[in-house]
UniProtKB/TrEMBL annotation:
Enzyme Commission number(s) from the entry: 1.6.3.4
Species: Enterococcus rivorum
Protein name: NADH oxidase
Family the UniProt entry places it in: Belongs to the class-III pyridine nucleotide-disulfide oxidoreductase family.
SUPFAM superfamilies: FAD/NAD(P)-binding domain, FAD/NAD-linked reductases, dimerisation (C-terminal) domain
NCBIfam families, alphabetized: NOXase_Strep
Keyword Flavoprotein: yes
Annotated signal sequence range: none
Amino acid sequence: MSKTVIVGTNHAGIAAANTLLDTYPNQEVVMIDRNTNLSYLGCGTALWIGRQIDSYENLFYTNKEAFEAKGAKIYMETSVVRIDFNAKVIYCKKNNGEEFTENYDKLILATGSAPIAPNIPGKDLKNVEFLKLFQDGQSVDASMAQEDVQNVAVIGAGYIGVEIAEAAKRRGKNVLLFDAAENSLPNYYDKWFTDDMDRVLSDNGVELHYGETATAYKGTDKVEALVTNKGEYPVDLVLNAIGFRPNNELGKDHLKLFGNGAYLVDSHQQTSDPDVYAIGDCATIYSNALQATTYIALATNAVRSGIVAAHNVGGTPLESIGVQGSNGISIFGYHMVSTGLTVKEATKAGLKVKHTEFEDLQRPGFMKENNNVKIRIVYEEGSRRVVGAQMASYEDISMGIHMFSLAIGEKVTIDKLKLLDIFFLPHFNQPYNYITMAALSAE
């Protein structure tokens, strides 16, 4: 028997544990997590808080007992104090104070990420919240239920910030959305798209405050005002959604790190220590768009990295095929999806790119049910390979982005898409499909 210890039991750790337990009977699996629960789908927090779903129960897709039934030893509410990587010993402490150790043959670090907390005056006031764990969602939901909570400030207009702003608005609150950037979702979409999302937010009553940075929280016991570089605003609740950083506390002094502090791993998810693997938000990943190692914190990437690591630990050599960072968001019924790089992000990374775009109705004009669709395809200037795509509509156009994800992974050129075999039926699309038209419009 070979003993593998997995530290962290959310999406990445769960994927690794299931793969080992289901595929490799010679594996002794130990799982350790400091939380009270596992498998919480944080992407559903805003849906629950905004009452778009009835309850939070189904946001958990497995439990401790399921792993124990498969033969795993699992410790919940247990912190890893330190790891002796040379002796292969993990020092643990339960919430009740009990201390113990676990040795390992192979170690998988799935410690995830931690929210970035602004270190500003008033940060310890009540009703200054973060959104990461299930318990955070419970706390925010309870705050939303208070009658005296009317003005809600959301700091950070990335995915989580925009989603929780919608949720607060659906709960009848006055919502102010702040970001240091000049628009929402700047990491995933170019301005042609973010302008539309900002319009959707504003039209639905979210007050936008871009180009503003929080400098202090004011209040006696609870937060009563938010101070920025441009003004002061009365608020009853502050929701911080600035972003996340890799949680590297256990291995930062032993393992090689990426520029942002994530554990640097190879295509097998192996760290600089051959007996230690890192997966999920604490580790790097390979971008097929960039053709380089980078950091992309997404649950889908976490699951894939867990599967890859587990097979390698189990004795089956398996390499990651890289990722595109495919993602999507739906706010007040407006859907946006993207994969790979935006023009802005590609340029920042040093790639010389061009882009082509097209806008049209989803279906022929004679169809009663219809909506506008926007698409932008980003491609490298020299090689002409597709490196990114963005799409937006009140229609569900989400499946289209998967094709572009595959195109990036396979280094498909923009020219290859010009005569792509795309079917036509009025119920679904136009005879001159917007994907085809965008590709044909490329220089």
